Backbone:
């Protein structure tokens, strides 16, 4: 008689966004005259830039002709895209990453979920708290996290690194030594960043204790300040301890188009074994390459027109972030994020819990955000608003909040 | 100090296609005057049908306008595609599969590699021999297969079901009871099929012993005979024991476009737990949905024009299959497959090994095929040719083989 992977049963229900949806639906049903504005989700709203649309149409045309038709893509990605990434995202920043150290995929969520597979189940992970839930959940599914305590909302075998106002929303080096360290900067959900000097400390630490840093740089395009690193490979020694995850979702609006990549330097080894070889074997065995038309669209992201058009798109969202941040500050809130990230993180007023503030905001301003406690226990008492709405909705939402 | 997943190191090198490539390159370098014809790979060569191209262009246009832009897709697929699949691939064949039992993905290779994750590592798998290598390799990575014997090329904890001329290339019910049974019909590499009555025996067996059948129906569109089942859900009782994997790669030429789906009926349970819930949780946690534009292209596959255009494409390849099969028979070979599948499976002549015949065919006809031994020990003495080339190349290859 077959048996299931019991680790799946350990996962607590994923209630955050379904609870939000239920509450919003109930509110709208009871208040048909009110217009609810959603600043809760991390999904983009601006259409794909013209240069991307042109690239997609061009590639579709190629697929319609025998002479230019493309079948199976190379498992690890087309050379034209890997070369463009290596040049623009690494060489131009002075980082030594070769095209064949880049693995093209259909997005950073898949990669951040699958990357743990190439490591032993005995490895211990360390995560920031609050954090993007995929890191922990995929390690639960693999049986790497021990038992769950519903009271503390923590797993016995996970090292949590609190990121609160007291630490300026940055993690401190953990007391217990981890094997795998998940870091995400600019951060989802707090919008916080760390400086290159701070990240260098993490790289030095990982090299010292023999840990691997899984660095999620999905929001890199939103960095506006000079001393914030765009990639972990700006740090010396990162080639022997770091894997970097990148996405086209937020810099180019590919949430529904799907494209991402992972960098594993060939110097990152366990004994004689390159992690690069293991990930290549996984890609070759369990994946069949990202679609040709999406890879051509990814190439267009790096063209001069692409860079210009996408800088405007990022600026559009970052203007929303400014509207939110300054509006909240005017209204007397304690706010962080929003400078190098599309996320604004606010302290709930008057000691409200995250969910109490959610209800209060929905009832009084008809605005939807995300309770910080949904991202981990240290998110309690915080709340996330996102800059991915339209400008008009963002301005209207802040007017309402200021009037509350 | 971090450790890797040691199971990856147990995998023997994947030398089949790289060895083929090396041998072909060496031959071409030594014989610059000869034109090599490749009938070895399972990749399509015909361009996407006009109706697919139109659907892709239409969806790309939608992505370029704010009012019709699509961000994150539903994890499990858009309703419009799931409904089209449920109607055309199941309801129209009298099979009871609901739209919400269909999980849209970026292809059957990913699904066939990932599906084992929701099962216990203690489960024992049974596979046909020869077989598509992904089934075994992904179970090796998960630690489910025991130790490898390089002499027999077999894993200690895998149940092999030989499919040779003696069994008419169909597997027999195994003596040892498996937990997971991988079946692929029409078969890659042999091109064999089983009748509905034969498949019903497997369904009855799985229900009796409490096993799950993972049914790979990627080549379903090539079925031409009446008593060959198009889906395992034509069999009574399949809803309590079967998972079906489907692909758009071979019926619509999506090898480089990427789209597939998996069906898990809600009646398939381990105790109280629906496997449907586990796969939904995996999709929601480790996947971010198939691209909107590809899902619109998938929808077009089921339109009246789509069905007409794609039937012609399949007929084109099946005409190649006929050319290959009849040509080989004329030349005196013992041949199977090619009637309900784009693969032709031939017995190597004069007791040659699969690789000896590869070398002989390359040297004398300048034609490339795939040695059967590359798909498993019972493939030794056989050879695979595919119908996915152009008609002109296929005819030319067979003329050469007949002259050998």
Residues:
């Amino acid at each position: 008689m077959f048996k299931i992977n019991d680790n799946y049963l350990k996962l607590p229900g994923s209630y955050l966004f379904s609870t939000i949806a239920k509450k919003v639906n109930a509110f709208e049903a009871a208040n048909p005259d009110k217009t609810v504005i959603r600043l809760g989700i991390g999904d983009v709203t601006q259409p794909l830039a013209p240069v991307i649309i042109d690239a997609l149409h061009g590639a579709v045309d190629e697929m319609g002709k025998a002479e230019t038709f493309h079948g199976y893509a190379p498992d690890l990605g087309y050379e034209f895209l890997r070369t463009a990434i290596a040049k623009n995202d690494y060489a131009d920043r002075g980082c030594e990453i070769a095209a064949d150290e880049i693995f093209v995929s259909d997005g950073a969520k898949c990669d951040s979920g699958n990357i743990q597979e190439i490591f032993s189940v005995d490895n211990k992970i360390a995560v920031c708290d609050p954090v993007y839930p995929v890191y922990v959940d995929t390690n639960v599914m693999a049986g790497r996290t021990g038992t769950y305590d519903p009271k503390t909302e923590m797993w016995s075998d996970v090292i949590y690194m609190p990121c609160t106002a007291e630490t300026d929303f940055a993690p401190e080096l953990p007391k217990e030594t981890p094997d795998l360290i998940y870091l995400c900067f600019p951060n989802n959900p707090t919008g916080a960043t760390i400086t290159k000097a701070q990240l260098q400390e993490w790289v030095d630490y990982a090299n010292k204790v023999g840990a691997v840093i899984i660095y999620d740089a999905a929001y890199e395009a939103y960095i506006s300040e000079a001393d914030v690193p765009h990639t972990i490979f700006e740090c010396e020694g990162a080639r022997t301890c770091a894997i970097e995850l990148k996405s086209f979702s937020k810099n180019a609006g590919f949430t529904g188009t799907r494209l991402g990549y992972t960098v594993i330097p060939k110097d990152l080894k366990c004994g004689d074994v390159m992690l690069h070889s293991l990930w290549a074997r996984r890609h070759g065995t369990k994946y069949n390459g990202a679609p040709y038309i999406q890879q051509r669209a990814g190439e267009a992201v790096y063209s001069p027109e692409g860079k210009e058009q996408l800088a405007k798109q990022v600026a559009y969202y970052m203007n929303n972030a400014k509207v939110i941040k300054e509006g909240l500050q005017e209204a007397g809130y304690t706010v962080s994020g929003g400078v190098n990230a599309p996320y604004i993180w606010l302290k709930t007023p008057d000691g409200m819990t995250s969910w109490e503030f959610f209800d209060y905001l929905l009832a009084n301003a008809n605005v939807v955000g995300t309770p910080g406690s949904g991202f981990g226990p240290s998110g309690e008492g915080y709340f996330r608003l996102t800059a991915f709405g339209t400008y008009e909705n963002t301005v209207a939402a802040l007017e309402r909040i200021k009037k509350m």
